[in-house]
Design brief:
Helices cover about 30% and strands about 25% of the residues. With about 400 residues, the chain is an alpha+beta fold. The radius of gyration is 27 Å and the shape is elongated.
Length: about 400
């Protein structure tokens, strides 16, 4: 049977309203009502967690919020059945059971599963959608952690964009990236992390497997033991640690530098520049900072683009053909001003201990002050490793004072 979006929404609202009225009436008829979840759990022998979720759902004003938060039909039937012997009128029990049956029918006969219902109703409310997607990504995190055998608390990507000293048309890009609170869950899996070229020491030819900018003093966990090799022009780091106990937790950060990592000006239709990042391991939180020098992209506001790259590989945000791979998300990029407190206060991030010290060390290496930079931050819980995160800025047109590119 085909339903219009309007009739579908009406059905959902009707079911939610019946649940609220029917279940609230049963709970209100219990002796001593209103009862806390703990008191009610002791009386009828149902899980306090279930009753807390039920009461929280009934308190919502939006029908979509009610259906997203409320326990499943079987749990609701158990609550009503166990309330019946406490003097609740049979008519109220019947009304509540019929409302639960309608809810069950909505799930089984229309959407098929509770997850499908959540996905459908999430499109009608941005806050609700954010919670639904957060919970869904948390489930993906749990599954991938067990499949890949590794997880981390935080994946950090911080990219500095500054004028290139040797090329007025280029932008020097310096990056801090890696995992904090890294833990192996399985000893039979192989874990790799790929980073860009390390920051070269001025005036010297450095070993591509070593970086003179070490952040180990900023770690709160033991440094991860890695085997480093070049692969496809990038550094491939293999995790050597095979311990799987809860105390085997490590940090692993690298600093890379490209003296001409991006273009400063727009070139034809290719006018978007900025951060492009992947999360190499299941992570509880992704912290991504675009740290932009005040002379770079001065009038541009950040655009967040998230791509599902599983089938076609990394995306160029300037390629409109890749728009079909974009994923709509509720998260956004926030600009952090330096008006309140010091500039270093922008790097007080609970998920990244000693972040301000890391930033200071990299700025010292670059020979710049953090006061020269604007900071734009994305915090994204449970990022999907197959997703590409882009914080894009519109590059200005090249000024007449600069020789046009050939």
């Amino acid at each position: 049977m085909t339903h219009s979006l309007a009739s579908q929404a009406q059905t959902v609202e009707t079911v939610a309203h019946r649940l609220v009225v029917g279940l609230a009436a049963v709970l209100a008829s219990m002796p001593g009502a209103p009862l806390s979840p703990t008191a009610l759990a002791h009386r009828i022998g149902v899980s306090r967690v279930t009753l807390s979720k039920l009461q929280g759902a009934l308190a919502q004003h939006s029908p979509l919020e009610v259906l997203q938060r409320i326990p499943g039909p079987e749990s609701l039937r158990e609550v009503v059945t166990r309330c019946a012997p406490y003097g609740v009128e049979p008519a109220l029990i019947t009304d509540a059971m019929q409302a639960i049956d309608a809810f069950d029918h909505l799930i089984r006969n229309y959407y098929g599963t509770r997850a499908a219902l959540h996905a459908a109703i999430g499109s009608g409310s941005t806050p609700l959608r954010g919670r639904i997607e957060h919970a869904a990504r948390a489930d993906v995190f749990k599954g991938l952690s067990q499949i890949l055998g590794v997880e981390c608390n935080t994946w950090l990507t911080s990219m500095f964009f500054a004028p290139a000293p040797a090329d007025e048309q280029a932008v020097a890009v310096t990056t801090i990236h890696g995992a904090l609170g890294l833990r192996r869950l399985r000893s039979d899996t192989t874990t790799y992390f790929t980073f860009g070229a390390p920051y070269p020491e001025p005036g010297k030819t450095s070993d591509p497997s070593q970086s003179p900018v070490s952040l180990r003093e900023c770690y709160t966990n033991a440094p991860a033991q890695l085997e480093v090799a070049m692969a496809g022009g990038q550094l491939r780091h293999k995790l050597l640690e095979h311990r799987t106990d809860k105390h085997a937790i490590f940090d692993m950060l690298a600093v890379s530098h490209n003296p001409a990592g991006s273009r400063r000006y727009a070139t034809g239709a290719a006018n978007l520049r900025g951060v492009s990042a992947f999360v190499d391991t299941p992570a509880r939180m992704f912290v991504c900072d675009a740290i932009i020098h005040r002379d770079i992209y001065p009038s541009s506001e950040p655009m967040l683009m998230v791509y599902n790259t599983a089938s076609r590989g990394p995306a160029n945000p300037n390629d409109r053909n890749r728009d079909i791979d974009r994923i709509s998300v509720t998260e956004s990029v926030v600009q952090l001003g330096a008006q309140q407190g010091t500039a270093a206060d922008r790097f007080v991030v609970p998920e990244v201990p000693n972040y301000a010290a890391m930033i200071d060390r990299v700025c010292t290496q670059m020979g710049r002050s953090i006061d020269e930079f604007r900071v734009y931050r994305l915090k994204f819980a449970y990022p999907i490793p197959a997703f590409q995160f882009v914080i894009a800025f519109e590059a200005p047109q090249q000024s007449q004072a600069v020789t046009p590119e050939t």
